[in-house]
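Format notes (please read before filing issues)

Several people have asked whether sequences and structure tokens are stored in separate files. They are not. Every record keeps both together, in the order shown below: the sequence lines, then the token lines. Line labels are part of the format and must not be stripped during preprocessing.
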Amino acid sequence: MKILIVSDSHGRSDRVYQAVDLEKPDMIIHLGDLEDTVSVVEKRLGAPKIPCVFIKGNCDFRSQGDLQDWSVFTLKGHRFFCTHGHLVNVNYGLDRLIYAAMENNCDIALYGHTHVPFDGFEDSSFGAAKVHVLNPGSISIPRGGSSRSYMIMDLRDSGAYDVTLKTL
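Then the structure lines:
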């Protein structure tokens, strides 16, 4: 299963479409700050044929459609916790994100908001189980010297997976 993970397109859905056309994913996760109409984007992306998860970001106050503050789901034995990041204050560290993932029995946490890519195994300050934390950066407005980016997760039936950061 090939999962396209994007964030912070800020109304530039053409860049999301470009990544979809390049990658031809089986699933799409948008981690917030879409700033577009979900139904229009879903139609262009081929939903419901391609399952899509859309998360509400701090700039999505004008976005129309089904946007959630977070989403929790299971795929091939992994529990995913997806949020934009502003509600768990990722600008000040990842502890609250990790706690939220652990509270939901998730081993993978996805976030955006910072516009800076991140891929690491993190544990809470209490030394609990590690959570794989991923941020695809921004597909439109990168920060911190990064490029416009997204992630591809190749999730195999066995539950093994690889994550690759890609640029546009």
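For reference, the curators noted about this record: The chain has one domain: 2-167. The chain has three helices and ten strands.
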